[in-house]
Amino acid sequence: MKNMDSYTHVRGESLYVDDVNVRQGTFHAVVFDSSKAHGKIKSIDYSEAQALEGVERIFTYKDIPGENEIGGIIKDEPLFAEREVHFWGMPIALIVAESEFIARKARGLVKIDIEELPIITTAKQAKENDSLITKPRSFSLGDAEKAFADCDYVFEGETFSNGQEHLYIEAQGAYAEPLENGNIKITSSTQGPTAVQKTVAQVLGIAMHKIEVDVTRLGGGFGGKEDQATPWAVMAALAAYHLNQSVKLILNRHDDLRMTGKRHPYESSYKIGLSKDLKILAYEAEFLQNAGAAADLSPAVAERTLFHATNSYYIPNVEVAVASCKTNLPPNTAFRGFGGPQGMFVIEAAIAKAAHEIGIPTRRIQEANLLDDNDVFSYGQIATKVEAKNTWKSATATFNIAALEKEVEDFNASNSAFKKGLALMPICFGISFTNTPMNHARALVHIYLDGSIGISTAAVEMGQGVNTKMMQIAADVFSIPIEKIKIETTNTTRVANTSPSAASSTADLNGKATLKACKVLLKRLKTVAATYLKVTAEQITLKDEFVYIEDKKSKFEWTQLISMAMLERVALTENAHYATPEIHFDKTKEKGHPFAYHVYGTAIITATVDCMRGTYEFDSVKIVHDYGKSMSEGIDLGQVEGALAQGIGWMTMEEIAYNDEGRLLSNALSTYKIPDIFSVPKEVEVIPVETQGHELAILKSKAVGEPPLMYGIGAYFAIQNAIKAFNSNYDLKFHAPMTPEKVLMGLYENPNTSQH
Amino acid sequence: MITFILNNKTITTSEHSGMTLLDFVRYEQRLTGTKIGCREGDCGACTVLVGTLESGYIEYQSITSCISPLGNAHGKHIVTVEGTNLQNKLTVIQEAMKANYATQCGFCTPGFVVALTGFTLSSSHKNYDNALDAISGNICRCTGYKAIEKAANQVVEKLNNKEKRSFDWLIANEFIPEYFSTIPKRLRELETKDRDQPKGKYVSGGTDLYVQQPDHLADNDVHLIAEKDYLKGINIKNGICTIGTNSTVSDLWNHKELNTIFPNLKKHLKLVSSEQIRNMASLGGNFVNASPIGDMTIFFLALNSDIGITTQGGKDRNLPLKNFYQGYKTFDLKDGELLKDIQLKLPKQNTYFNFEKVCKRTHLDIASVNSAASISVENNIISEAHVAIGGVAAIPKYLQDTSAFLTGKPLTSKTILEAQEVLQNEILPISDVRGTSDYKRLLGRQLFFAHFTELFPKQFTLNEFIEHA
C-alpha cells in the first residue's frame, strides 16, 4: 500500500493552509512582538503604523472580548502581552492590512519602550531563583539511597541536552472567515483542532459551536503544531470577528523561529550505582527542564521524562525528579518524543560514564540490564510482551556486533587522520497519552449511494500516513478498492472534542474508532444481504466488491448491496467512539498503568570522525525495530528513517542558541541547520523483529511516530567513542549536540599529555 | 514589461521587476505548488526551473524562486511543479517519488520533483551523484532522505536506459509534458529586447541581496544586471583567465578548461551552497557582499586575482582583489561603479591549489572557517604562496604575512608549523553563532595543515603536524 496522499503531493496539488482559496477582500496579518526578553511595557505608539496606507487595524489585548488567555494546561499565557513581556518574540499586537507586505512595513513603524527586567535563560538559574512552572514531580521505586550503599560502583555527573527547532517546512498559519450569525470558520495548520476551537471561543467569549476548525493537512508538525498552532488561529479569528472580513495569518520563517517554542533543553544530574556483575542497582536523576515563559505542555513533557528515565532497563531502585523551570525563553513545547528523549539521554550518559570509568565497553552494561517480562517500571506498570532483549539479541546477532566492532578497531589501528566510533542504542517507549482522559477518538463513516465512502476522524495528516492507514482499515473491512474511500479534512463540526494528533497514538485511537464504525456498518449490510439472499447474516461475507455466502461468490455486488440498504432505509452512516481500555494513572501516588503498550528496538550506529577537521559522517545505522505487525511497511519504515534523522540532528548539528539577553541567535535556516541529504547516515538498515504485535495497537501494528527518534541518541555516543580513539586524554562530556566545534575541541583538548 | 513563458503560458506583466518570482507564481498566478519554506534559498521548497535559449538550444537550471527577482525571468521559460504535470498520470520522477515513499507531509515534495526534473533536462551526466547534487538544495524534515535517495536512483536508472535524451525522448518516456517541444520556438519568437530599467540597486543573481533586504527590493526600484553581456563569459588567453562577474558558480562548475586546470574544482565548489544557489549566485555578488566568510572570495584571494572595475563613464580600473576590502563590509567601489571581471594567472605545472571549508553541516551552510591556498613548489622550495582564510577577521582575509613567510622556504613540516604561528598572529576571530574564537583559531590551524596534507599527501600527515604543534 503506497501512501495515498503522494499523488497530489508530487503534482503540487495538495492543499495546505496557505493554498486554500481566499475570499475577495481578505486581509493579511503580521504579529508585532517583543524585542526584549523581560520587561515592563512603558509605552507603545502605533500611530505611524496605523497611518500607513493599507493598514486596516491593529489589535491588542484591549480588543479581546473574552479572556486574554491561551494556556492549555495552566492558565498562565496571555495571547497578547498586557503590561509585561516575558520572552523575546512574545506577541504584543496584530497588525492587519491589505497585504502581508504592508503589515510588515507597518510593524517597523511601531514604537515601543520597554523597561528591562532581569532575565533568566537557563533552567538552573530558574531553579535557583525558585522560578518554577509547577510543583516538581518525582517517581520512586525501591529505595535508591539504601541501594547505593550496596553498590560496588557509584558514578555521578551532569548532562545537558539542547532544544530543537521543529522546522516543519510549512510555517505556522491560519485563515479565518466570518460566516453568518457571528460564526467563524478557521482553516488552521494545527495538530489539535479542538484546542484551537476551544481557545478561540474562550478568547472571543463565545460558544464553541460558533467556531468551526478545519484542517486540510500539515506541512510537518512534529509536536510544534500541537499547542503552538493555536495563537495564530486565535489572532486571525479575533481580527475576523472584529472586521467581519477574512483574515490570513501565515508566519514568515523568521517570525516563526523567533516566536515559537521548541524542544525543551534539559540540564540534568545523575547518580548511578552498579554491582560488580554490572547490574544497575540504583539510579537517581534530577531533570531541570527549561520550560520557557509559560507552561504550554511543559508539565506533560516533564512527566514523560520521568516515564522514560530508565529507558529499556530494569532498575530496582529508582529516584527520579523533574522540575519545569520558568525562564524568559519562548514557551517550549511538544516535540516528537515529548520529554522521553531528554530522559533517555541522561541514563545513556550515566551508563557510558560508568563503562568508561570501569573500563569496559558500554554495551556490556546496557545488555546486562535490559528489561524482561514482569519487570516493574518505576511508575508501577508491569512490563509485558517485552521486546528489549529480543531486539537487542536480534540486532547484535543479525548485524554481527563482534565483526562490526572489529572493523572499527582495525580501521582505527590503521588510520590516524580518521577514527571510527560505534554505539548501541536500545529504546523503550510507552504508547498512550500519559494523561489518561485524552486517550479516545471518534470516527464518522458515511457510505454514499454509489458505494463510495467518506471518513472523518480526529486524525490530522501531517506526513505520518494516517490517512492511508484509515483508508486501509475501511477497505479491509468492506473489501472494496481503496479508490472508493476518501478521508475528509479534519473538522470540528464532524468530529468534535478531539485529542490532538500526537503521542504516536493517532493511528491507534482513530483507527480503532474507524474500525469500530466500519464493523457496525458491515454488520448492518450483512443483515440486508442476508434478508435479500434468504440466508443468515453469519453466512455472509464481503469480498472484492461482492457478497459471498459461505465463501461462495454470489452475483450480488457491493453497489447493489448499498442500493438495497437505502431502499430498506438502513442507516449508512455510523459514528463510533473508542477509548483505550486498561490504562490508568494515579498522580497522587505516581503509580499506575499509563501505557497501552511499549515499543522496543535496538540500533547500532557507526560514525567516522575526520580528525583533521572535526567533521563526521555516519557510516551506518542498523536497527531491529518492534513494529508489532506493521500494517503498512513502507509508511512505517519512512517513520523510522525520518525519526532517526531527526534524532541524529538533535544530537549532532542542530544547535539552538540564545544570547544572554534572551534573543534567539539561530534565527534563520542559515544559522540553524537540520540534516540535508548528504549528512544522513550512508546506510540505514531496518529489520522488523518478529512479534505478535499488540491487541491495543491498530491491527496489531504498533505506533511508530516517536520511538525511533531515540535511536538518534546513539549518534552522540558513537562520535564520542571516535574522539576517544583519537585522544586518549579526552574527558567524556554529556553536552548535546555534538557539533563539529565540540568534536574538534575534544580531539585536541589536554594536548600536553596527549598520546596519539 | 517583463515577458516570459510560465509553464505553457506566455506571460506579459508590468509587475515590479524586483518582486520575487515566488510571489509572482504563487500569488499572482495561483500556482500554489511552489511552496514557501524559508524565503532565503535555504530549503528548496520553492524550486523552479529556468530555461534559457542559448544558440538554439534550451539549457534548464533549477533556482530557488524566493530569492530570484521576477525581472530575471524576462525572456526565459519558467517551469513550476504544475508545469511538469502530465494529464491524469505521473511523470517518471513523480512516480519514483511515490513508489519509494519519498514523500510524507508533501510540503517539500514539489521542490524535489522540480529539481529532479531539472536534472533530467540538464546536460549533466546522468549518474546518481549528479542526481543528488541536483537536490542538494532541497531540505526534507520528514523522510530522513533514504527514500528520496531511492527515488533519485530510480530516475537515474530510467534515464540510463537511453543514450539520447532529447525533448522528444523525454516526452515520449513521460519525464516531461508534451508542450516542452514547443518552447524553443516560442522563446525565439518572444519579444525580449532589453527592457528600460530604472536606476536602483544593482541586482545580479540576488542570492545575497534577497536574503538581506527582501522588503527593500520589493519596495524600491532595482536595476537587474544578470543579463548584461559585458559582465559575462569566461575567457582564457595567454595564460590569463578572465571571468565576467556575472558568471555564476555553476558557470565555473561547468567550464571544461577550468576543470582541467583545477582538477578538484567540482569537489571544492560542491562545498559552496547548493546547486540551486550556484545556478544563480554571481561571483561579483559574492565579492561585493564582502562577507568575511564568502567562499568564492576566499577562493579567488588565494589565486591572487585582480578585479576589473568599470565606471559609468566607461573608464576601467584594475586592482588586486586583496586590496579591495577596507573593513567590515566596506570596499573600494564608488557609486556608479560595477565589478566587471576577475583576472587570474593560470597556475603553472608546479602550482597546487586547495580549498577547505568547515561548517555545522558540510553542504548548504555558511562556513565557520574556510580557507584556500595556492602553493608553487620548485625543487622542494616554496617559490610562491598565497593563502586566504575566512571567518577569522572583519574581511575575507588574504594572509599577507603567512604567504610571505612561506615564500622561499623549503617545503617541510617545520616551515608549515612556523607559518601556522604567523597565521595565528594574522587572524582575530570573534565568537558568534558559527563558533567560539578558540574554535575558529583551532580550525584555522587545522585547515592550514589540511592544505598541505591534501596537496602533498606523501610528504605530510596530520599526526606529524599535531605532534609538534
From TrEMBL, chain A:
Swiss-Prot/TrEMBL keywords: 2Fe-2S, Iron, Iron-sulfur, Metal-binding, Molybdenum, Oxidoreductase
A GO MF term: iron ion binding
Gene3D superfamilies according to UniProt: Aldehyde oxidase/xanthine dehydrogenase, a/b hammerhead, Aldehyde oxidase/xanthine dehydrogenase, molybdopterin binding domain
Species assigned in the record: Winogradskyella flava
Domain Aldehyde oxidase/xanthine dehydrogenase a/b hammerhead per the UniProt entry, residue ranges: 11-118
InterPro entries xref list: Ald_Oxase/Xan_DH_a/b, Ald_Oxase/Xan_DH_a/b_sf, Ald_Oxase/xanthine_DH-like, AldOxase/xan_DH_MoCoBD1, AldOxase/xan_DH_MoCoBD2, AldOxase/xan_DH_Mopterin-bd_sf
Family to which the UniProt record says this protein belongs: Belongs to the xanthine dehydrogenase family.
Cofactor dependence: Mo-molybdopterin cytosine dinucleotide; FAD; [2Fe-2S] cluster; Mo-molybdopterin
UniProt-listed Pfam families: Ald_Xan_dh_C, MoCoBD_1, MoCoBD_2
Keyword Iron-sulfur attributed: yes
Top-level division of the source organism's lineage: Bacteria
Protein name (record): Molybdopterin-dependent oxidoreductase
Automatic annotation (TrEMBL), chain B:
Keywords per UniProt: FAD, Flavoprotein, Iron, Metal-binding, Oxidoreductase
Transmembrane segments: none
One Gene Ontology molecular-function label: FAD binding
Pfam families assigned: CO_deh_flav_C, FAD_binding_5, Fer2, Fer2_2
Protein name: FAD binding domain-containing protein
Entry annotated with the keyword Oxidoreductase: yes
Domain 2Fe-2S ferredoxin-type residues, every copy: 1-84
Domain FAD-binding PCMH-type: 172-349
Keyword set includes Flavoprotein: yes
Family matches, as CDD domains: fer2
